[in-house]
Specification:
The chain is of the alpha+beta class. Helix content is about 55%, strand content about 15%. The chain has helices spanning about 10-35, 65-115, 130-180, 185-215, 225-240, 260-275, 335-345; strands at about 45, 60, 220, 245-250, 255, 280-290, 295-300, 350-355, 360-365. It has a 5-stranded mixed β-sheet with strand order 4-6-7-9-8, covered by helices on one side. A two-stranded antiparallel ribbon has the order 1-2. The chain has a two-stranded antiparallel ribbon with strand order 3-5. β8 (about 350-355) and β9 form a beta hairpin. The radius of gyration is 40 Å and the shape is elongated. Mean pLDDT is about 80; it is low at about 320-330.
């Protein structure tokens, strides 16, 4: 943005310091005039008993107001000139020292604008306003660098994940073209499977982007009803894997997108079913209102989850390779990432805790919203 040139902040402060000092000196001289010189008579006074002959003391000359002004005015002007010069020089030095932290912050901002987000100010000194500004700027750079790094890693992983089904499809088509006698039904079925996986991945990416942008309409949502709907939807998968699915709890009202919250609960429950014991496992879904929050807990049995694996489970394309699962329901690696993104979009929190006997406890807390009264009441 083009702006007209102007004085620098250092020059403005210097002129302000010099002007203030000059004004203070002028006020001091004005006080001398008002309370001292104005009471001096403006007529010549000569006192003394004799005329100075024969050893007698002569008349004494007492300066009047005009005499004092003639002696005082040049010295006052010199004092004001010195104050002006001292204010300009001292103000320039003092302003430079005061603005040095801002110069350091501006240099860091220019470095960040050029693409280097790893630079930090790390300002030393007392905890004043400049130090607080520098610390806030460093924190902002840290969050921005983390966000950009996540986006770059997400883009790289997404490109890799999308390229894989396309490469497989290209290979299958090349095989079909080079070997016309090959069973076309098998190739078509494999192409259908690969294409379905690519569509699922694309839809998951779009849903993740939508949740991050928070571009949805908010409405009153009951987590207990959402939990029952998700359990009913995933009941065939649970029965197929011989998993006991149980829904308990009470009404838990919140505000958000019913579609996104349903997807959040569905992903969480599906993850609990897939990463479970090979046979005879359990998944428990519990809802309640607690301490001003609507709480959803999904607890499942399974093998022990290493604590160091927990921070990576909500990252995109992290499938938890050390956890028990089958290739049939491996997913696209975005299940818990979508859950985490939807929770953040609804101003909530997601806590993952390994169970001592194996499995995982996922706790979601969303802001509680009281149910509006019925119009018939």
């Amino acid at each position: 943005m083009n702006r007209r040139p102007g004085f620098s902040a250092r020059l403005k402060l210097t002129l302000s310091y010099a002007g203030f000092l000059l004004l203070a000196g002028a006020l001091l001289l004005a006080v001398v005039w008002l309370f001292l010189l104005r009471y001096v008579p403006d007529v010549s006074l000569i006192t003394g008993p004799g005329d100075g002959r024969r050893g007698e003391p002569g008349p004494q000359f007492i300066p009047n107001r005009s005499d004092l002004l003639r002696a005082f005015a040049p010295r006052a002007a010199q004092a004001l000139a010195f104050l002006l010069l001292f204010g300009l020089v001292g103000g320039w030095i003092l302003a430079g020292r005061m603005l040095a932290p801002l110069t350091q912050i501006a240099d860091a901002a220019r470095t960040a604008a050029n693409g280097s987000l790893s630079h930090r100010i790390r300002m030393e000194g007392p905890n004043d306003e400049f130090r607080e500004l520098a610390d806030v700027f460093d924190a902002m750079l840290g969050q921005l660098e983390s966000h950009v790094t996540q986006q770059q890693r997400f883009a790289a992983n997404a490109s890799h994940e999308l390229r894989t089904p396309l490469a497989i499809s290209q290979t299958l088509l090349d095989v079909a073209r080079s070997d016309p006698a090959r069973d076309q039904g098998e190739l078509i079925e494999r192409l259908h499977t690969v294409n379905t996986r690519a569509i699922d991945l694309t839809e998951a990416l779009l849903l993740l982007s939508r949740a991050d942008r928070q571009s949805f309409t908010r409405e009153s949502v009951d987590l207990s009803l959402i939990a029952e709907e998700a359990a009913e939807m995933l009941l065939p998968l649970a029965e197929q894997r011989r998993i006991t699915l149980d829904v308990t709890g009470e009404r838990a009202q919140t505000v958000g997108s019913a579609e996104l919250i349903l997807r959040m609960v569905t992903n969480l429950v599906q993850n609990a079913i897939v990463h479970n014991l090979p046979d005879g496992g359990t998944v428990t879904i519990h809802t309640q209102s607690q301490h001003g929050a609507s709480v959803l807990r999904v607890e499942n049995t399974g093998h022990r989850v290493p604590p160091e694996l927990l921070p990576t489970l909500t990252e995109p394309f992290q499938r938890g390779t050390q956890r028990t699962r089958t290739d049939q329901h491996a997913g696209v690696g975005l299940g818990l990432a979508i859950v985490h993104s939807i929770v953040r979009a609804h101003d909530g929190t997601l806590d993952l805790t390994p169970r001592p006997t194996g499995g995982l406890l996922a706790t979601i807390r969303l802001p509680h919203h009281p149910q509006p009264p019925s119009p018939n009441v």
